[in-house]
């Protein structure tokens, strides 16, 4: 029987969260694992952009939505891949406290590379808050996505999951 886990892929916008969770999801599914991707780029707006008066409150509500969904899927022994900036460290750490099989995967990528990847111009359009991000203090996995290929990153994650007993 499969063991559930929640992996939060965190990092600045355009650091590679969506690409890595897609690749990892495909690989795990090919190996027969039940996987769910919760991606801020593709989830319904009611989940990722809840109505609130302030940006901070919207971020908190977004976290609560992602947290609820990930806990529910985890209870059904699903490997949950969250692809979301998760701008506030405290909120990401709160989920760690709630789920024993939680891994925080920090995608570190230099600004110049992120700007090259930003074909939609989000960094310029949303400059008032777009750069705000509290880096993890002790991520379970640190990936230098400006230097490593997506395939290299996925291999490292898979090895980590195997070493921790989440997959075989």
From TrEMBL:
Domain of life assignment: Bacteria
PANTHER family associated with the record: SULFATE ADENYLYLTRANSFERASE (PTHR42700)
One Pfam short name: APS_kinase
InterPro entries: APS_kinase_dom, P-loop_NTPase, Sulf_AdTrans/APS_kinase
Native organism: Effusibacillus consociatus
Protein name per its UniProtKB record: Molybdopterin-guanine dinucleotide biosynthesis protein MobB
Keywords: Transferase
Domain APS kinase: 3-141
